[in-house]
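Hi R.,

Here are the chain sequences for the assembly we discussed:
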Amino acid sequence: MSAAPQRVLHVAAEIFPLLKTGGLADVVAALPPALAVLGHDVRVLLPGLPAIRDGIGPLKRLAECGPAFGAGRVSLFSGRMPDTGLPVLLLDAPFLYDRPGNPYVDGSGLGWSDNHRRFALLGWAAAQIGAGGLVEGWRPHIIHAHDWHAGLAAAYLAARPGPRPATVFTIHNLAFQGLFDASVFAELGLPPAQFGIDGLEFHRQVSFMKAGLAYSDHITTVSPTYAREIHDPAAAAGLEGLIRRRTASLSGILNGVDYAIWDPAHDPDIAQTYRSCPSPGKQACRAALRAEFGLAPNPGQALFCVVSRLSEQKGLDLVLAAVDRLIALDAQLVLLGSGDRALEEAFREAALRHPAQIAVRIGYDERLAHRIIAGADVILVPSRFEPCGLTQLYGLRYGTLPLVRRVGGLADTVVDATAAALADGSATGFAFETASPEALADTLQRAVAAWQQPKVWAGLCSSAMQASFSWDAAAARYHTLYLQLQT
Ligand code: ADP
Ligand code: GLC
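And here is the predicted structure of the full complex:
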C-alpha cells in the first residue's frame, strides 16, 4: 500500500464489545485497526458513557475542555480498547454521559431530552481536536464521522477559519437522522447562516444527519447499492435532494467482517468448531441449538434463524405473515431479537402456538447470537431496506445460508441460487424482490427444496463459507479515499 500514512480521527457513539446497539459498533471496532495495518495512525473519539469508560483502561487525562453545552466539567482522556489496543480518546462529561444503558434513549425508550447537547459535544470536541487543540502534538489529517451522532463535527469545522482536516462522513442508516426542535439551534454555537436549507435545517427542524451530509468533504455509505438507492425518495427519508446534490462526493464502500470474532473455525461460543459444511461440527452446533431451545430434535427439518433488531426496517412482519407456510414446510425457526413491542409479542405467540417448531428469545445476547448463527441452516434477513447488513455476512462464513431481500448491502453480498448461479458455483444463498409474505414464503420453499438435496446444499455451503468480506478490502478503499482527499 503506497503513500504517506495519515493521522485519522474516527468519531462515533458506540464500539463493540463495550457498547453496541447494532452493526455500527462492529464497524467502529474493526475498521480503525484495519486502517492501522495499512500504516495509518488512527484514534477513535467516543463519548464517556459508563460502559465505554469502564471498559477502557487505564485512562490518561489529556485536557480539560471547560464547560460546554451545559455539561459542567468536560475532560478528554486517552486509553486503549481491551482486545485490539486501538487508541481511544474518551470525552468525559458526567452530566451528559453518566447514564447506563442504551446510548440514545432513556429507560422508557424515548430519546434523552438533551441528546442535541450530548451529541453536539461529540462533534464539537472532534472539531477542536481537528483544529489542533486538545491533543497536544496530534492533529488529524482526516476526521471520519459516523452517523448523525457525529454529524456536527463537519459543521463545527466548516465554521472555523483557517486550515482544517479533510472530513469524511459515513451514513450507516439514513432512517435515523438526529432531528431536534428548531429552538435547540441557538444552543449549538454554530453560525446562524448554517440554519438554512443548505445547512442543518430540515423542515424547520435541526438535523444532525444533514450537517454531516452538507459539510463533509466526502460522504460514504456502507454498500454500493445503498449508495445508489438513497438517490431516490423511497430510500432517502426526505434527503434525496441533498444526496443528489452531493452525488459526486458520495461513494459506497462495503463493510467487512471481523473474522477474528466471527469464524466457526475458532469460535469459543459454539458447541463445536468447524471448517466446512456439512460437517460433524456444524451438525453438533445444530443439535445443541435445538436442545437449548427445546425444539423437536428432528434432523429432517430445516432450521431457519433470525438475529435482529425487531424494527420496521428489518421486514420481520413478513416472517410472521409467512409463519403458516414455514410450518407447512415442516421447517423450524429460532429467533433472537428485541425492539418493537408488537413484534416481540407476535413472535412470542407464534412460538406458543408451535412450540416444537418455533422458539423465540426476546433480548440482546451476543454469545447466543453466535450459537444461533452456527446452529441454523439458513439466516433470514428480509429487510425493507438495509444499508449493508452484517448478519448475512456472518451467516455466509458459518455455512448458514442467507435468505435475504434484494436491497442495499444484501443485494451486494448474497448470490441467489438461480439455476445459472448453481451451475457456475457462484450461488451463496437466496434472494427475493418484493416485500410480500408470498414472495418470502416462496423463497422459504426454494430454500427447503435445496436443503433437501444434500449435494446442492453442500455446494451452496462451500461457496458461502469461501466468500470473503474482510475488513482489509474495505480499509484499502478508505485508504484510497483518504489519500484522494489530501491531494
Ligand atoms: P443493524 O445495525 O441495522 O441492526 P447489522 O446487521 O448491521 O444491522 O448489525 C446488527 C448487529 O447486531 C450484528 O452484529 C448482530 O449480530 C447484532 N444483533 C442484532 N440483534 C441482536 C440480538 N438480539 N442479540 C445479539 N446480537 C444482536
Ligand atoms: C446500520 C445499518 C446496517 C449496517 C450497519 C453498519 O445499523 O442498518 O445495515 O450494516 O449500520 O454499517
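The pocket of alpha-D-glucopyranose (ligand 2) is lined by residues 22-24, 27, 172-173, 222, 255, 386-390, 409 (CB under 6 Å). The chain has two domains: 7-256+471-486, 280-466.

Let me know if anything looks off.

Best,
T.
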